[in-house]
């Protein structure tokens, strides 16, 4: 949620921000509701003060006057009740409107309506050149006994897969490799709950603007399955005041992720690129507001360090305004080369959400004698399914085997390749 005071003081900047994001939001109606809310709050304060004056004077008057004052007091209480009901209605409408406002973009975010306006900041590594017919990950996975989508469809339906054999060992090798690096940089490993309350998910900004369509909702329990561990890591510090001496708080959450993939029918239906359930390691930071840009660059550097260790070709992309998610003030993606598709595909994302999420989460820090909202940031370490695709396809060999990147070999018994038995 954006800051109401910022909206009041900078309506033109907010209007321009919404235009850059191609969001049509009635700012004038929102500001009118803010004014109406403040006016009713003042009226309620006046009525309550009058009621208190009456209550304090009752012991000092005659019985006849007491009856008159008691009646007047009851009348004032009824007026307060009516005003509070009106106030509640206005606040609900105001909160609904404010939840539609996207975060304020950083100045360096490029303009543009969609991904065609994204900026490629750098390309690292060279896509491999093969002297044999390139296989896609599902062909490789089936031949080596790593991926079974046919049986998963039988048990669970479309967009599911069994990972088996060395694919499982490769996943856990990735996890060990990633955590060994992240913990050395001060990240605390976390296995979060896979279900969070709708209140927590809403506070993170994932139930607005159609987000409900992407989420598995356990309606009998008012819980939702997380689509990424950040949706649990953010609320972990909900309603808390953080000690500035503890910042930055860096978390590395490992969890399954559950996504309905609504609206993606017909896209990436083969294999494990776009599935309903996958595992992921997610970085999440809480910082001092003055340090969040620096922390954002740090998260990106960690993503690149992890990628360079695996020697996968990738490029760093800064997302345009229209392609940036509403909670984010700036987002970088990392796109990794996928040989079978002859293109780069998104495998990582890192966003600075500033105080957009912490405002509703009420996650604050005590600074200069007052409380202010901490900044929150997130970044993919590895979405396991997508990085498995990149590893299998970029490291495939003519004999059907797959080379294991050197940093993963200690976690796979020292082997240098995966091959058919």
Summarize the structure.
With 421 residues, the protein is α+β, with helices and mostly antiparallel strands.
Order of helices and strands: HHHHEHEHEHEEHEEHEEEHEEEHEEEHEE
Distance between the termini: 55 Å
Could you say which structural class the secondary elements and strand pairing correspond to? alpha+beta
Q: Kindly provide the radius of gyration, computed on alpha-carbon positions and rounded to a whole number of angstroms.
A: 27 Å
Number of strands: 18
The number of helices is: 12
- Low-pLDDT residue spans: none
CATH architecture name of the largest domain: 2-Layer Sandwich
Q: What is the total number of structural domains?
A: 2
Question: Could you explain how this protein is built, in words?
Answer:
The structure is a single chain. The protein is α+β, with helices and mostly antiparallel strands and 421 residues long. The chain is 39% helix and 21% strand. It has helices at residues 4-9, 11-20, 27-57, 63-98, 137-143, 149-156, 166-184, 198-203, 230-233, 292-310, 356-361, 384-394; strands at residues 119-124, 147-148, 162-163, 188-190, 195-197, 217-218, 223-225, 241-242, 249-258, 277-287, 314-318, 330-338, 343-352, 364-367, 370-373, 375-383, 402-403, 417-418. The strands form 5 sheets. An 8-stranded mixed β-sheet has the order 1-11-12-13-16-10-9-4. It has a 3-stranded antiparallel β-sheet with strand order 5-7-6. It has a 3-stranded mixed β-sheet with strand order 8-14-15, with no helix packed on it. The protein is elongated, with a radius of gyration of 27 Å. The relative contact order is 0.14.
């Amino acid at each position: 949620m954006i800051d109401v005071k910022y909206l009041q003081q900078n309506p033109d900047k907010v209007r321009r921000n919404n235009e850059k994001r191609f969001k049509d939001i009635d700012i004038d109606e929102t500001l009118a509701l803010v004014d109406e809310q403040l006016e009713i709050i003042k009226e309620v304060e006046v009525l309550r003060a009058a009621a208190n004056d009456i209550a304090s004077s009752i012991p000092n008057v005659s019985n006849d006057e007491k009856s008159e004052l008691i009646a007047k007091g009851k009348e004032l209480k009824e007026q307060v009740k009516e005003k509070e009901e009106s106030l509640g209605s206005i606040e609900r409408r105001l909160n609904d409107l404010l939840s539609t406002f996207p975060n304020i973009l950083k100045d360096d975010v490029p303009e543009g309506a969609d991904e065609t306006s994204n900026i490629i900041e750098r390309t690292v590594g060279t896509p491999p050149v093969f002297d044999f017919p390139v296989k896609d990950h599902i062909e490789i996975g089936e031949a080596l006994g790593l991926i079974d989508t046919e049986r998963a469809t039988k048990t669970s339906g479309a967009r599911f897969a069994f990972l088996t054999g060395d694919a499982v060992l490769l996943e856990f090798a990735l996890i060990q490799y990633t955590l060994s690096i992240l913990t050395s940089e001060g990240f605390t490993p976390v296995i979060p709950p896979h279900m969070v309350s709708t209140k927590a998910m809403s506070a993170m900004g994932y139930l607005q603007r159609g987000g409900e369509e992407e989420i598995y909702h356990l309606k009998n329990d008012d819980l939702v399955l997380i689509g990424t561990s950040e949706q649990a890591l953010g609320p972990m510090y909900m309603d808390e005041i953080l000690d500035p001496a503890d910042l930055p708080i860096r978390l590395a959450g490992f969890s399954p992720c559950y996504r309905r993939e609504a609206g993606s029918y017909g896209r990436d239906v083969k294999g494990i690129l776009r599935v309903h359930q996958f595992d992921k390691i997610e970085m999440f930071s809480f910082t001092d507001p003055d340090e969040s840009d620096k922390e954002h660059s740090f998260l990106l550097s960690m993503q690149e360090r992890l990628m360079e260790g695996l020697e996968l070709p990738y490029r760093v992309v800064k997302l345009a305004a229209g392609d940036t998610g509403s909670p984010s003030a700036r987002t970088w993606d990392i796109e990794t080369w996928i040989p079978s598709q002859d293109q780069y595909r998104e495998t990582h994302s890192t966003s600075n959400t500033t105080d957009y999420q912490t405002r509703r989460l009420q996650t604050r820090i005590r600074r200069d004698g007052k409380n202010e909202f901490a900044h929150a940031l997130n970044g993919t370490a590895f979405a396991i399914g997508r990085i498995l695709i990149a590893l299998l396809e970029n490291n495939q060999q003519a004999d059907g085997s797959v080379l294991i990147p050197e940093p993963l070999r200690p976690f796979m018994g020292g082997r240098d390749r995966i091959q058919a038995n």
